Amino acid sequence: MTETGESVGVRDQGRAPRGPLWWGRRRSAVLDAVLALVSGVECAVQGVPFAREAGVPVGLSVGLGFLAGLTLVLRRRWPIAVVLVAIAVTPAEMGFVLGTVSLYTLAASELPRRIIALLAGMQALGTLIVTLVSVRQDLAPEDYGPGSLRWFVPVVSLLLVLGVTAPPVLLGLYVGARRRLVESLRERADGLERELSLLAERAEERAEWARNEERTRIAREMHDVVAHRVSLMVVHAAALQAVALKDPEKASRNAALIGDMGRQALTELRTMLGVLRAHESKPGAVAAAGGGGVERPLAKVAEAAEAAAASAGRGGARAVGDGSRGGSAEREEPGPCLRELEALVGQSRAAGMAVEFSVEGEVRSYAGRVEQTAYRVVQEALTNVHKHAGGARTRVRLAHREGEVAVLVENEAPAEGVRDAGLPSGGNGLVGMRERVTALGGGFVSGPTDGGGFRVSAVIPDRGRGR
């Protein structure tokens, strides 16, 4: 089946009702039926003089002419066949509407240009021959010289042929090109709409992924801030209970340590909630509605700890984004750093843990996220020792290497008769440490040792230039 240019324009008109058979719309079917009826009547009328001149029965000539004109109803389905019918009836000097409309339809179709040119040329040649013969018969040779007839008849015939065949062909070519352009633009617009829809879906997926990542990050930060200090508070509270009556002075020191750790935990928690509230008005940031509800009950307690926060000299704010920009030794995100590991180890020693701390390599600064991640790994590892291996000897090692920093926390098996601290554990600490390290492209290993203890090791690459 050959599809015409007019049918192409309605190929995907799903919004309009479909017409019968091969027509894309009902009004197209009605138009073709009217044109076919007009063409049939025209050919039938023109068949009468042809029958008289050719000596054939008038009824046969009129009937054949009417049927030839009716073939125009097939112009959208078989344009080549309709043009051939128009060429066939040209010697009978009938089918002006048939020839004109069929040439227009042929030129506007999706057929190759060479076929259009061939059929249009055949139609023009047939019309030219018939016109030449007709003009010669109509002219009176005795009124003109032989030289005049030699150029007059061909010129007149050629002008008549061009006037009949050129306009429908040119108009058909223009309409077909315009229709193809509109269809191409429509397809391009549909493609762009699909791409925009796909981009919107991907943007929504990325936004959901970012929200989930932010929730995970906040949960990890809350765990790191609270779990370590609360664990130490529980250990000191147990020691305070044991020595409250025997050694009041030691009990007083333990009580002071518990108070200091509680204030530090509240200060860090208040700072983090403040960061969430600061992000409240930023698009794409995690809403601070839940954080504000927690912050208000803690406001008075946190205000009392501002002095301790000022003396500590660090704000625990966390900026969302990648803080490992190369070429900078300053920490992009304020928070704990490797210089504070000594104080962290000192807190565990004050709680009664035997901790050995060693530093290897040339001490230098790293990117902010690198130092914070290393600090949090050591902090969480010490917290796990307090929870599950109270009193066990522990070794903390910090190694400065070329382009990376490594930390190791390893504890021995707990002493006989030492009970577990009874602190809840959901297994989120090791998961959080692994997530932090792998997010920076590092390696994380944890597991029991042959001697019954536990080892946590992390190697974190430094994307910037240490100094």
Explain the overall architecture.
Residues 214-279 form the Signal transduction histidine kinase subgroup 3 dimerisation and phosphoacceptor domain. It is an enzyme of class 2 (transferase). The chain crosses the membrane at residues 54-74, 80-103, 115-135, 155-177. Its EC number is 2.7.13.3. Keywords: ATP-binding, Coiled coil, Kinase, Membrane, Nucleotide-binding, Phosphoprotein, Transferase, Transmembrane, Transmembrane helix, Two-component regulatory system. The protein is of the alpha+beta class and 467 residues long. The protein folds into 2 domains: 5-199, no CATH class; 324-467, Histidine kinase-like ATPase, C-terminal domain (Heat Shock Protein 90). The protein is 62% helix and 8% strand. The protein is built from 13 helices and 5 strands. It has helices at 5-8, 26-54, 58-70, 79-88, 96-108, 113-138, 146-243, 248-278, 289-304, 306-312, 341-350, 368-388, 428-439, and strands spanning 355-360, 394-401, 404-411, 443-448, 454-461. It has a 5-stranded mixed beta sheet, covered by helices on one side. Helix 4 (79-88) packs antiparallel against helix 5 and helix 4 packs parallel to helix 6 (113-138). It is rod-shaped. 31% of the residues are buried. Residues 1-16 and 283-333 have low confidence and may be disordered.
- Terminal residue distance: 77 Å
Our count of domains comes out at 2
Shape: rod-shaped
Regarding quaternary structure, what we see is single chain
User: What's the helix count?
Assistant: 13
Largest sheet: 5 strands, mixed
In round numbers, the mean pLDDT is: 76
**Could you tell me the strand content as a percent range?**
5-15%
**Secondary structure: number of strands:** 5
As laid out across the biggest beta sheet, the strand order is: 1-2-3-5-4
Question: What are the segments in which pLDDT stays under 50 over at least 5 consecutive residues?
Answer: 1-16, 283-333
Rounded to an integer, what's the Rg over CA atoms?
47 Å
